[in-house]
Give the backbone structure.
Amino acid sequence: MRWDIFCKVIDNFGDAGVAWRLARQLQAERGADVRLIIDDMATLARLDRRVRPDAEAQTVGGITVTRWGRPLGAVADVVVETFACEAPPQYVEAMADRSPAPPWINLEYLSAEDWVGRCHRLPSPHPRHLLTRHFFFPGFGPETGGLLRERDLLAARDAFQGTPAARHRFWQDLALPPPAAQERVVTLFGYDTVQVHDLFDAWAASKQPVRCLIPDHTPLAARAAHQARRPAGENRATLGALTLAWIPFRDQVDYDPLLWAADFNFVRGEDSFVRAQWAARPMAWHIYPQPGDAHRIKLEAFLEKYLAGLEPPVAQRVHDLFLAWNGEGHLGEAWNALSGDWPLWTAHAATWAGQLAAGPDLVSNLADFVDKLL
Ligand code: TRH
C-alpha cells in the first residue's frame, strides 16, 4: 500500500516529529510504501541526520521524502494530512479523479479533552468533490485513535532501564560519568518562556545533587546558559549541588534513551510529551501556548486523567509543578514541595504508561480504520 503523508511545519519540531515518526512506523511495521511531502526539509534534518536539508527529493530509510510544491504524480492508496495541513488543491482534484478515491485522513493534534472521542473518525464530505475526509484523533482512551507507540518501544525501554551496561554506554556517549548513587538526573526541554532560574536555585541548594541535561541549540538552552552563566565554549556548568550539561540535540530515534536514562523529564509540545509518558518516569509538560489560553483547558484535561491515580495531596503538588512549568507559580518551590513524593510518583508513572499501553497503538488503529474505508 502506498501512503502519502503531508506535513506543514508551523514552527518548532513537533509537526515534523509526529509525521516522521508516523512514516517510519508505517514503513517498518506495516511494510507500507510511504512518501512524506513536507515543506521544511531543514527541520526534518534536525530530527534525522540522514535527511539532506537542501534536497528536493530523497529516500531516507526506505521512505521517499519530497519537498512540498514538487509535482507529485500518481495519488497514493491512502492520503494523510497531519494537523489539518490541507493537501495541494491539484492533488485533491487528482484524488477525486481516482477510482476508487483513496481514504483521506486528517490526523489531528493530541488532546485529552473528552470531546475528542466524539469527533474521532467523523466524516467530512468535500464541498465540491466526491471525496470524504475523516478526522483521526490521537488520544488517551479507547474511544480515540490512541498514541504513537512502536511495537518494540516498551521492551527496549525496559531493557535499557534494566541493563547497567546499556546505561553506562549512554553516559559514555555523552562523555559524562554515570550519575552518583544519590544524584537525580533531569532533562530539560521546554519553550523559552519558562523562567528556570528559580528551579536552578532550588537544585543548587538541594541536599541531593542534581544533573540537568539540556538539549543544546534550542531557545531554552540559550536562556539556561544565560541564567546559569555558562562559561563561553563550555558544555558544562556547576551551581552548588547542580551540574548542568548542554548536550547535542539528538536524532529522534535516540531521543527516547535520553528520557529513559533520566529520573525526571521536563518536556513540551506533543511528541516529546508522549515519549516522556512511555519513559515511565515522572514528568512535567510545557503545553504549546495558544491564543486566549485555550491550551490551559487542554492542560487541565490531561491532568484530570493523569492525576486520577494519585492520592490528593500528591496529585495537588504534581498539578502545581505542571502549572509552574507552564509559567504559573514558583517552579523551585513546586519542585521542593515534591521532595517526599518521588517514589510514589515514579511508581505512578510506570502504572500510567502501562495503562496507556493496554490499548492498540495509533498506527494499528489507523491501519484498521483505513482497511474499513477501502
Ligand atoms: O518542538 P515542539 O514544541 O513541537 C510543537 C508541538 O508539536 C505542537 O503540538 C505543535 O503545535 C507545534 O510544534 C507547532 O515539541 P514536540 O512535539 O515535543 O516535538 C519535538 C520533537 O523533537 C519530538 O519529535 C522529539 C524531538 N527531539 C529530538 O529528536 N531530539 C532531541 O534532542 C529533542 C530534545 C527533541
About this structure: The chain has a mean pLDDT of 96. Residues 56 and 240 are 49 Å apart (CA to CA). The chain has two domains: 2-146, 153-357.
